[in-house]
Amino acid sequence: MLTLAACAPAADVAPLPGGVADYQLGEPYPPAEDVTVVVRDSTTSPEPGVYSVCYVNAFQTQPGESVDPALLLTPDPAWPDEFLLDTAQRDALVDRVEDVLARCSTAGFDAVELDNLDSWTRSAGQLDRRDTLAVAAAMTDAAHARGLAVGQKNTPELTADEVADIGFDFAVAEECHEFDECAAYTDLHGDQVIAVEYTGTLTEICADPDRPAMTSLRDRELVAPGSPGYASEHC
After folding, report:
1. pLDDT tens per residue, range 99-119
2. Could you give the CA distance from residue 151 to residue 193 in angstroms, rounded to a whole number?
3. How many structural domains compose the chain?
4. From residue 96, how far is each of 18, 70, 84, 86, 116 by CA, in Å?
5. 96: phi then psi, degrees, rounded to nearest 5
6. Strand 232-234 to strand 21-23: parallel, antiparallel, or no bridges (unpaired)?
7. What is the CATH number of the domain that holds 49?
8. pLDDT reported for residue 29
9. Does the N-terminal or the C-terminal CB of the chain have fewer CB atoms within 10 Å?
10. Is residue 221 packed enough to be buried (19+ CB in 10 Å), middle (13-18) or exposed (0-12)?
11. What residues make up the domain containing 52?
């Protein structure tokens, strides 16, 4: 087994506190009393009194976002309203994310998750793994300079050396139980993992010996309490 110390959080950023994480990307709302970590979109405000993670769509466009056409590749086949961004143009991509990191830091978030790191795996060869990881490392350096911890988003393909070189402090894993990938995150990050499942039952998810300590079962649309389909349970 890989050593968990390989990916200890950077010394100048706050690690995840443990406890219960609430993944609120669909719509922000007051969390339950036992929640210690809240993840929200970069366009919202952090929840006072908890560890707050800022969602950043770092490697693809947000739906409707205006981006320099020179950076755009084809739409993501999994998310056709989002375009892949050309990771060969590292400086331009880091500049784009710097604006979002500044907003997250000024708003008072403690950390960021850099989404769609795994875009190269869906790019049909348009994106290069090495370019992508170089961009991720530069973005992580920029976030650390603002005092923000940085989360690896999905991408179980990464090796321990790659994660250490990039400088990720924790991970956010979607459906790692569903796809039998949880150990790929806990082996590298230990208890510094937020896991979100969208299918299955809480009983079977929590019985998984590899599932991260901070695992929750949410509705796929991540709607607020009181909305049709809302679901939020945790191990």
Report:
1. 999 999 999 999 999 999 999
2. 9
3. 1
4. 31, 13, 14, 12, 15
5. -60, -45
6. unpaired
7. 3.20.20.70
8. 97
9. N
10. middle
11. 4-234
